[in-house]
Amino acid sequence: MMPPTEDWSALFPSVLGLCVASLAIGYLLGSIPFGLILTKLTGRGDVRNIGSGNIGATNVLRTGSKGLAALTLALDMLKGTAAVLICGQLGPYAALAGGLGAFLGHLFPAWLGFRGGKGVATYIGVALGLYWPAALGFCAVWLLVAMATRYSSLAALTASAATVLGLAVLGAWPLVALFGLLTVLLYVRHGENIDRLRRGEESRIGGNKQKA
Length: 212
Fold this sequence. Notes:
The protein is mainly alpha-helical and about 210 residues long. The protein is built from ten helices and no strands.
C-alpha cells in the first residue's frame, strides 16, 4: 500500500538531504587524484606534464611503469565502489547519489582546476558497487571491442552505451537514469577521442600515440 501523501512530503526533505550529503561524500572520494599522487610519490614527477596530461591510468602508463598504471586503475575504480558502499548505508538513493558524486569528483576535481580523468575506471567501480553484473558486462564488452578494433576509447564508449541498454532491458530504471547520465559525461570527456576516431587518427592499443 502506498503511504499517505503527507508522509511522502514529510519524508522528501530527509531523503533529499541524505542524497545531497552523499553527493558531497562521493565527490570528495572521487576527486582523490591517485594517478597524480602515485607518480609524485614514486619520483616520476607530475603526470599532467606528460602525454595527454590526463591523471588516469593510461597516461600513468606513459611513465614506463605498468605496475603503477595498474594500481592507479584499481584505485580509481575502487573509489567509485567505496563511495557507493559508504553512502549506501544511508539508503538506496543515497548510494546512487554517492556514485554520481564519485564520478563527478574524478572528472572535475576542484583542487586540480576541475581537470581530472575521463572516468572509465570510476564508471566501472560505481557499477561494481551498485550492481556487479553491470560492471562485469561493461568489462566483457570492452574486451570484445578492444580485441576486435584495438581502440581503447571506442571500447569504453561502446561498453558504456551497452551498459545503459542492458539495464534498460532489465527495467532497472533508477540505474538507467544514473548510468545514462554517466555515459553522456563519459562521451563528453572523450570528445577528442571521438574526433580522432572519425578522422581515422586514433592510435590503437599498443601504438605509440594513443591519448586517453
